[in-house]
Amino acid sequence: MGLYRRFLAPRFVDTICSPKALGAWRARCVEDLTGHVIEIGFGAGRNLPYYPDSVTAITAVEPSAIMRQRGARRIEAFGREFHWGGLDGQRLEVADASLDAAVVTFSLCTIPDAQAALRELRRVVKPGGELRVLEHGISPDPKIARWQHRLDGFEQVIADGCHLTRDPVEAVTSAGWTINSTYQRYAPGPKPWAYFTSLRAQS
Ligand SMILES: C[S@@+](CC[C@H](N)C(=O)[O-])C[C@H]1O[C@@H](n2cnc3c(N)ncnc32)[C@H](O)[C@@H]1O
Fold first, then answer.
1. Cβ contacts of residue 124 below 8 Å, gap of 6+?
2. Atom 16 of ligand 1 has which residue's CA nearest to it?
């Protein structure tokens, strides 16, 4: 792994994920969840302030040591049970059907085999448990989608493996989840990066 990817890209990516304007999207993603939740691609814990009190514990999976360090203060402020659950969302070190719900935000774009990670989440969440996803992805507008394909290679280099052209709805359904609701629209910002999907699915 090069120096940029190891040391600078996580800082750059976390800064991109930090705007306050994303707060409403994050809050909507985790609202009404209960019990023990697993979050993969945890990053610097930017969803933690939005979890409702009904979430009693978080198991987090995050490979980047820099991201984990950047999340330390948020984990402390969370003040509830918190566990690290391994380094790779594609191979979870978690027992079958042991958790109440799963959350992924802005990480299905980056995890190399996003479908494998979504299948793993289905394995560890109890039957009937929920998956919440917040993600950017391929735009339905062909002009924007063409730009996304043009920019995709550059994006992967500067943003730690992030893809602009993935379809989160397709990934979630292919991994065997049943989608209950989908909310899609452009968030403020340059359109190739700003077509957001917030979805809720059940195992
Ligand atoms: C764009 S960041 C999103 C961070 C956070 N979820 C947020 O919303 O701010 C993508 C995260 O996915 C993590 N990641 C990359 N490969 C992964 C893998 N195989 N398993 C789990 N997480 C991974 C990266 O280290 C990074 O922290």
1. 38, 92, 94, 95, 96, 97, 98, 99, 102
2. 111
What letter does residue 52 receive in the DSSP assignment?
-
- Is the Cβ atom of 197 under 6 angstroms away from ligand 1? no
Ligand 1 and 192: CB distance under 6 A: no
Instruction: Write down the pLDDT at residue 96.
Output: 98
Assess whether the C-beta atom of 104 lies below 6 angstroms from ligand 1.
no
Answer yes or no: is the C-beta of 148 below 6 A from any ligand 1 atom: no
Domain span at residue 193?
3-202
Confidence of residue 1 (pLDDT cuts 50, 70, 90): low
The CATH number of residue 140's host domain is: 3.40.50.150
> Which tens digits make up the pLDDT trace of 3-54?
787 878 888 888 888 888 999 999 999 999 999 999 999 999 999 999 999 9
Number of folded domains in the chain? 1
